[in-house]
Design a protein that fits this description.
Strand content: 15-25%
Bound molecules: adenosine monophosphate
Mean pLDDT: 93
CATH topology of the largest domain: BirA Bifunctional Protein, domain 2
Number of domains: 2
Low-confidence stretches: 422-428
Shape: elongated
Largest sheet: 8 strands, mixed
Strand order of the largest sheet: 1-5-6-11-10-9-7-8
Structural class: alpha+beta
């Protein structure tokens, strides 16, 4: 038997309904903040990620799926979404449009990760980018849209961790500070961090190895070394968040794994998730487009890890999304069998989702199936009903049975608490 590659997953029904429901909320929320969808290729020239994410990052260093195509060009399956958005911005001259552009994306990313729970080699991210605005207000709006998204899913216990990563000039100075502090303690660091100390010292600060954390605890925070411009920027973002009542904590150790970030960086952490606690990461990237050869266009964005998000989805949202969203229409006898599809098509056109019993199950077997598969409403169509142009509707949740005329089914469905529960659950 051929098996799927390690680190990939099959997304099966009914779980796929959770993904659809989450993505519908993302489109709705990010759309209402002025966002529009962007879809970029799943593979890009390797150089794009080397130049944007950064040569010395873990992603580029050891996690990319890179391959030559038939003409020998080096291509890479995208490990993240922002680089492609920046490339598309340049290549399609999006700078000619009114700025800023708010763009969201939903799609698969690829990283050659070591196998562990919650880490996949193909995973999905939901991201939002605001390109063309350098104000603290832009960061705050982005965070407000993100916060709203999590609220609509019913999350109550997430933490936003925020930090100032400084401007690139600050960072260069800060790298020297880190080297000076850690060089004498090099032997206490893990092998990866000994390399990082030479290539990208900042990354030592978010290493999860305990001995590295102990050593890093004595390094001064970046914010203490940063210049006034970045400190003021992040302080203004914080003031906006306070005014909006969006809770956050200042985490002075937060650095993030991609080179293009500066000033505001943040993560969203779920206390339930343990070691894979980070659900979302983002920050400001004002030099990214210039580093790719374009003008100095600022941007800020985040990416939510959809796989992890779905693992910790609040129960109420889950239950509503998983409820079988259809009437189960069961024909009993030959005449009903002949009429059933026409009836179903009529209802579907009126907005009633219908799943027709097409295998000829007996009533008893059909009711058992309805129960097993989580249908709330079973509509039975026998000879008597057909003659009267009604169906006998059993509401399994209310354990009641009524006769509903064919033409009254759309209204019946609309008024059903189960049908409106989905809309209800998404209300903040
Ligand atoms: P990053 O692009 O590394 O900032 O990641 C943003 C979010 O994507 C993380 O917080 C995770 O939730 C998710 N993520 C990153 N890598 C993986 C992976 N290998 N498997 C599943 N989710 C991931």
């Amino acid at each position: 038997m051929i098996q799927r590659p390690r680190g990939t997953r099959d997304l099966l029904p009914p779980e796929s309904r959770l993904w659809q429901a989450v993505e519908a909320v993302a489109r709705e929320v990010f759309g209402s903040f002025g966002g529009e969808e962007i879809r970029t290729p799943v593979f890009e020239p390797t150089e794009l990620f080397v130049r944007s994410v950064g040569e010395t990052t873990d992603i580029v260093h050891k996690e990319m799926y890179t391959f030559p195509d038939r003409k020998g060009r080096s291509l890479t399956l995208r490990p993240e979404g922002t680089a492609g958005v920046a490339r598309a911005w340049l290549e399609n001259r999006l700078g000619d449009r009114t700025q800023p552009l708010r763009m969201y994306y939903i799609g698969p990313m690829f990283r050659y990760e070591r196998m562990q729970h919650g880490r996949y080699r193909q995973f999905s991210q939901i991201g939002l980018e605001i390109v063309g605005a350098d104000t603290p207000l832009a960061d705050a709006e982005l965070l407000a849209a993100m916060h709203e998204f999590f609220l609509r899913l019913g999350f109550a216990d997430l933490e936003i961790h925020l930090n100032n990563l400084g401007d690139p000039e600050d960072r260069a100075r800060y790298q020297d500070v880190i080297r000076a502090a850690l060089e004498p303690r090099r032997s206490e660091l893990c092998a990866d961090c000994q390399r990082r100390l030479d290539e990208n010292p900042l990354r030592v600060l978010d290493c999860k190895v305990p001995s590295c954390q102990v050593a890093a605890a004595d390094v001064p925070a970046l914010d203490d070394v940063a210049g006034d411009a970045s400190r003021q920027h992040v302080a203004r973002v914080e003031a906006h968040l306070e005014r909006l009542g969006i809770p956050y904590v200042r985490n002075r150790r937060l650095v993030r794994g991609l080179d293009y970030y500066l000033r505001t960086v943040f993560e969203v952490v779920s206390p339930q998730l343990g070691t894979n606690a980070v659900l979302c990461g983002g920050g400001r990237y004002d030099r990214l487009i210039a580093d790719l050869g374009g003008p100095a266009v600022p941007g800020v964005g985040f990416a939510i890890g959809e796989d992890r998000l779905i693992e910790v989805l609040p129960a109420r949202f889950r239950d509503v999304a998983l409820a079988r969203p259809a009437v189960y229409l069961v024909p009993l006898g030959e005449a009903a069998g002949a009429a059933v599809l026409e009836l179903a098509r009529g209802w579907v056109r009126e907005g009633v989702p219908v799943e027709v019993e097409i295998t000829g199950r007996s009533l008893k077997a059909a009711l058992k199936r309805a129960d097993r598969d989580g249908f709330r409403v079973v509509a039975m169509l026998g000879d008597d009903e057909l003659a009267a142009r009604t169906v006998t509707v059993r509401d399994l949740a209310a354990a009641s049975q009524t006769s509903v005329p064919f033409t009254a089914m759309p209204a019946f469905w609309r008024d059903l608490p189960a049908a409106s529960a989905r809309r209800e659950a998404e209300r903040p």
